[in-house]
Fold this protein.
Amino acid sequence: MAAEINKHYLELKESYLFSEIARRIREWQAENPDRAGELIRMGIGDVTRPLPGAVVDAMIHAASEMGRAESFRGYGPEQGYDFLREKIRGYYEGFGVSLKEQEIFISDGAKSDLGNILDIMGEKSRVLVTDPVYPVYVDTNVMAGHSIRYALSGEENDFLPMPREDYAADLIYLCSPNNPTGAVYDRAQLSAWVDFARERGSIILFDSAYECFVTGDLPHSVYEIEGAKEAAIEFCSFSKKAGFTGTRCGYTVVPEELKRDNVMLNRLWLRRQTTKFNGVCYIVQRGAEAVFSEEGKKQIEENISYYRENARIITETLDRLGIYYTGGKNSPYVWMKAPFGLSSWDFFDRLLNECRVVGTPGEGFGKSGEGYFRLTAFSTKENTKEAMRRMETLFR
Ligand code: PLP
């Protein structure tokens, strides 16, 4: 009798997006060896600014603590150290959300928990994701054998799909500010989703990985919406906020009010984490704590402002060229319509061949992304300016 594998893995579609981008770049480089150095990458979703000094100092200090018998620490609490949970609790107070420490679970980043959360959900969950979509939501649900339905979006709803009767689902993934579209739900729109979920007993899985880019009165957290604690789990990350993409730290909020079948999901998640996870590295959690220090906050704001300025350079160019886009104002992503009626990939090729600029074809994020293109603000200011200057030459 042979062991059975999880056959749902065989149903996964090969993710060809980034490998196809890499292949086309390689081909271009082979044909243009003398120009290879001119390539500007505006497609990456990774940050480029280094960790803030306050974070680095805190991690050095924590590392030296670990090297001395009197301050050494072994296994920490699976759900994270109180010193960091307390800081996150305080951060939420800043936008009027009151959380209990035990509702906050420190993670090694949002991606892991976005996948792991399915451990505590029903076996045959019906799932709603938006299209275009951050592919992790889709693939993790395919792996779990769940059925997936797509809420289509486009210019008619500014890439912010709203609830519809036929969108009823057990789990609803919302990402705001959105990757890839940069679009942000306002309070009224988010309230409509929260009400929709509450009325049907659905659970919203709210990805706020880019909340640090939000300005003005737009919500940073789903819990700013009345009733959301009974209907939503929130996933957040230090990756984009503080440059932790390679350092790895985030948090997941599971409110005690969230119950299904009379069971608190908070208890299930605690049980899941204490069984399958041994916590985030002490040194990294001390680094994350420094994100909330006065010095840390200042340094982080400088980095975010740097990316915001890049986004402004991109959107200003698009405004001048009269090209439709979403994002860029409260997000490091700008989602532009491919000009001249080009498909996503045809625009990719033109931008690469004629401007030596690389972006991400929208079609790679779902069929509603066809005809659109994602640019990111994570490049350097000099490169962002130069990329936009070159892009404008296409229109002459
Ligand atoms: N959620 C979204 C929408 C993302 O775009 C990303 C990373 O790009 C993540 C989550 C993953 O974040 P982390 O680095 O915390 O795993």
User: Anything to note?
Assistant: The chain has a mean pLDDT of 97. Residues 45, 109-111, 134, 175, 179, 207, 209, 237, 239, 245, 250 surround pyridoxal-5'-phosphate (CB under 6 Å). The chain has two domains: 8-50+295-393, 53-293.
